[in-house]
Amino acid sequence: MGRLTAIVLGSAAGGAYPQWNCRCPVCQLAWSGDPRVRARTQCSLAVSSGNGRWMLLNASPDIGAQIRNNHALHPHEGLRGSPIYAVVLTGGEIDQIAGLLTLRESTAFSLYATPATHAAVASNAMFDALASVSRRAVNPGETFTLDGGIAVSMFTVPGKVPLYLEREKTEISHESAANVGLELQREGARLVFIPGAADVTPELRARLERADVVLFDGTLFTDDEMLRTGTGKKTGRRMGHMPIDGKDGSLAALEGLAARRFYIHINNTNPVHVAGSPERRKVEAAGWQVAEDGMEIVV
């Protein structure tokens, strides 16, 4: 057991893979049972110091199935209870918060998020059902310590507000408390989780250079991917996600990082889902891995 242990509960973007209503070329492979692809649920991590207690990074709509699929998260003692003691949110998108409603059955845990994300959650009366949850507001730049001596820092990442909060003019690549990354540290080990990034600033690059493990936004391989496949009307950057490929993509921006690097939050249209594809080979040749559900990462 390392200083930090992370389980990838879900590695896909919103809608999961294959997406329930999609027959894009990449989804068709999954529907046909092609062995080169694996189904993925929506993005979430579980992290522990090795003491049997776990925090969740984001609560995806698939969190119930993710808990059932991972024995470490099963209730082990008493009539009711859970080894999950905290949920830390990187934003208020539906695929980051909808799973909170699955965790409403009167078992206490703490919910950490920026004031902006807490406000987004509180604006929907359905989340009043979380009566046993302690809501803790954390400003970007602040660090708090959780079970097992895990220090968690929130920091702003270029992005945008959740889709359902967009107005006529939405700022893209804007750094605010609506979109944050998380840095987890314990006994010198550093893990950084950034499921949504519209750009890599010099400050962000410097932070990632200090990390042992980086899980970074791999939503789309190319910026125009959804336009070309006919699955959407927005570029990746318009959705708040920089592409993997291209001169201004994350492969180029993060070239040379020493950390173990994983792409996560992968859209259903992204061909890196396909083992052996040119796109998968390109990211692997650059030193990246494509995160998969159930993957355990020990730091």
What does this structure look like?
With 299 residues, the chain is an alpha/beta fold. It has a single domain (5-298), classed as 4-Layer Sandwich (Metallo-beta-lactamase, Chain A). 17% of the residues lie in helices and 23% in strands. The protein contains eight helices and 14 strands. The strands form two sheets. A seven-stranded mixed beta sheet has the order 6-5-4-3-2-1-14. A seven-stranded mixed beta sheet has the order 7-8-9-10-11-12-13. Strand 9 and strand 10 form a beta hairpin. The radius of gyration is 18 Å and the shape is globular. The mean pLDDT is 96.
Short recap of the structure:
The chain is of the alpha/beta class and 299 residues long. The protein has helices at 25-31, 63-68, 94-97, 115-122, 202-209, 225-229, 250-253, 278-285, and strands at residues 5-10, 44-48, 54-57, 84-88, 109-113, 133-137, 143-146, 150-156, 180-186, 189-194, 213-217, 260-264, 288-290, 296-298. Helix content is 17%, strand content 23%.
